[in-house]
Design brief:
about 475 residues; alpha+beta; Alpha-Beta Plaits; eight-stranded antiparallel beta sheet; about 25% helix; globular
């Protein structure tokens, strides 16, 4: 049985109108807002960016003349993937509807601007969910596809592309085209994880799974080192619905990397009851940076980490709602705000399992020499296959965060060199300063993506600060 949800017409957005009939202005046409845009980490800022906010599908029409543009979702990226590079940003948040839902197969077709939270509230009462989701419910589906994000157990569930069946893509020279693994497969794979460089994702059909329950049982186990945690996660990932580790890297010496491994399974009985509504959130890169100064320093970080570790271990087994399990970043908004206006660095590295011990030991030594203050580290096991410029492969993903400082600037190039030497790869969407040389050394398939982009978009109409910095 197929259900076509009743939806309201596209919303009228003040100041944005479709291109007048017969107009000859290049696409994108029509009024745009002038806004200041900033990455979530605070590293890239543009004071006067042009942002279009279309609200009708007529906006996406074939046009022989185009201006540089780039799609934009909720703007939660740590890198400038949706602005800069001389491009005008096309914000897709008005395209936020469920188009179609098949109750038999669970396949759902949505517009690209729908948030994960809105899709969660549509799917869960119908007994379905997305297995792969990042940690905040305000991220859009189009952004998830363009970034090929991962969820709470990538070793078992893979990355976001695993649940994408079709994509409707717009390019002014080609119009709207439908992509899948069977129709234009090279372009489909270049679009999933392609950073918006093939065009604008207008809609997508996703594969969902039956929802086992609306609660999670979460277990916390203390470990003495990141490598010990990696061993536990590797063993638990096949039988867990989420598996990751939190580690305290602010310590020195033998206690460096003490942490907690977190695993969770759906409960078949709902001990906490259904929770299909998500709490409101106005979190954004600008709100994250509202504090004029950072409140995180070596002393406060150790206090915060000690308190957080104690709170986790105090409740070794606990039951949480589905929303709390799927979107943990919602509860960490205050933590991110403590970095203040100057912001933070996040470095997420996928390291081959055999080289993890060397990576962690060298990271500890390099951080000590640089006097860098690492606030935390989060690890997840991966068991995928690298392709193009997607953050995927086999190994352990380790994401570290630190306040922006001269010490951090000394440490980051050392991590770059270490990762290249050990055969790992960085997550390019988590690092707003990653050099092109490091990107090319760790993503050998980048030339294959460049070839697809040259064939499809020889004028390179779609670009951003990120793509210009990496030479894409």
């Amino acid at each position: 049985m197929r259900v076509r949800p009743s939806v309201t017409p596209c919303k009228k957005i003040e100041g944005v109108v479709p291109m007048a009939r017969g107009a000859t202005a290049p696409w994108p046409a029509g009024p745009s807002e002038r806004r200041s845009l900033v990455t979530m980490d605070g590293g890239i800022r543009i004071a006067d960016a042009a942002v279009h906010r279309p609200d009708r599908h007529a906006y996406f029409h074939q046009h022989e003349n185009g201006l540089p543009a780039i799609p934009r979702g909720a703007g939660f990226s740590f890198a400038a993937a949706s602005f800069g590079g001389g491009a005008e940003s096309i914000e897709m948040t008005a395209f936020d509807r469920v188009i179609d839902f098949d109750t038999r197969t669970g396949r759902v077709e949505v517009e690209a601007g729908i948030t994960l939270g809105a899709l969660f509230e549509f799917l869960t009462p119908r007994g379905r969910y997305l297995a792969v989701q990042p940690g905040h419910h305000r991220i859009t589906v189009g952004g998830c596809i363009a970034a090929n994000v991962h969820g709470k157990n990538p070793a078992r569930d893979g990355t976001f592309v695993a649940q994408v069946e079709t994509v409707r893509l717009f390019h002014p020279r080609h119009g709207c085209v439908d992509l899948s693994r069977h129709e234009e497969p090279a372009l489909f794979h270049a679009t999933c994880g392609g950073l918006g460089l093939t065009g604008i994702i207008v809609a997508a059909r996703l594969r969902t799974l039956p929802l086992p329950g609306t609660s999670f049982r979460i277990a916390h186990r203390q470990v003495a080192a990141i490598t010990e945690g990696a061993d536990l996660m590797a063993g638990d990932s096949a039988r867990s619905d989420l598996a990751y580790g939190w580690f305290d890297c602010s310590r020195r010496g033998r206690t460096h990397g003490h942490g907690v491994v977190v695993t969770g399974q759906f409960l078949s009985t709902d001990e906490k009851g259904p929770a299909f509504k998500l709490p409101p959130s106005r979190f954004s890169p600008k709100r994250r940076a509202r504090l004029p100064i950072a409140l995180l320093n070596p002393i406060s970080i150790r206090l915060v980490n000690t308190a957080y570790s104690w709170s986790l271990l105090r409740s070794r087994d606990t039951v949480v709602t589905l929303a709390e399990a799927l979107y943990p970043t919602r509860a960490n908004e205050l933590y991110l705000s403590l970095f203040g206006r100057r912001g933070l660095h996040e470095y997420q590295a996928l390291v081959p399992r055999a080289n993890l011990a060397e990576f962690v030991a060298q990271l500890r030594d390099d951080a000590t020499r640089a006097s860098a203050c690492i606030t935390l580290a989060v690890a997840k096991p991966f068991n995928g296959t690298p392709d193009l410029i997607r953050f995927d492969g086999s190994g352990i993903s380790l994401a570290i965060e630190m306040p922006r400082s001269a010490a951090a600037n000394r440490l980051l190039p050392e991590i770059d060199r270490l990762l290249v030497r050990l055969g790992g790869r960085p997550n390019i969407l988590k690092d707003s300063r990653l050099p092109r040389s490091v990107f090319e050394a760790t993503y050998p398939d980048c030339d294959r993506l460049r070839a697809v982009l040259r064939r499809w978009d020889p004028q390179r109409l779609f670009r951003s600060e990120l793509s210009e910095r990496l030479g894409l």
